[in-house]
Known about the structure:
Blueprint lengths: L19 E7 L6 E2 L3 E3 L1 E6 L4 E3 L5 E4 L5 E3 L4 E4 L3 E9 L2 E2 L3 E6 L22 E5 L2 H5 L7 E3 L11 E8 L1
Parallel strand pairs: 2-11, 13-14
Antiparallel strand pairs: 1-4, 3-8, 4-5, 6-9, 7-8, 9-10, 9-11, 12-14
Amino acid sequence: MSGIISSSVNLPVVTPAPTLASIAISPASPASLAAGSTQQFTATGTYSNASTAIITSQITWASSNITAVTISSTGLATGAATGTANITASVSGITSPSVSLSVIAAPTLASIAIAPASPVNLVVGSTSNLRLPEPIRMLQLRSLLLRSPGPVPITLSLPYLRWVYLPA
């Protein structure tokens, strides 16, 4: 084999970095949000190699109706007033499909049904620790004041509210 020269060269294989192909927002379709309440959105990017990653912090968030819904740079939407807004996420020229978010009037507490299993009778100046149901605690009810011409039997069923009976 004279006259034939053979050599080999190692060439590095360069794989291009995956590029962002699409963005999805979750939750995909919250039914509604009460005025004054918040909803955290998350953005997930799908890349050209089919991998996915949470990219919420890299996103520019937008609301189509800032009178109804505002959205922070972290994806936290706040119901500002009744209405509907489309929420989108975008980065590097790629925009997600929109998610519709309806804002409804905030519910107001009209009454609390007191259904004692065993009544607590309070007299002027006396106190008793009572418990509130979970939905009431979720409204962050901090205190109540009852006024009545006589002792009022009161019992509630979850944590922690102190009742003081005061004369009318």
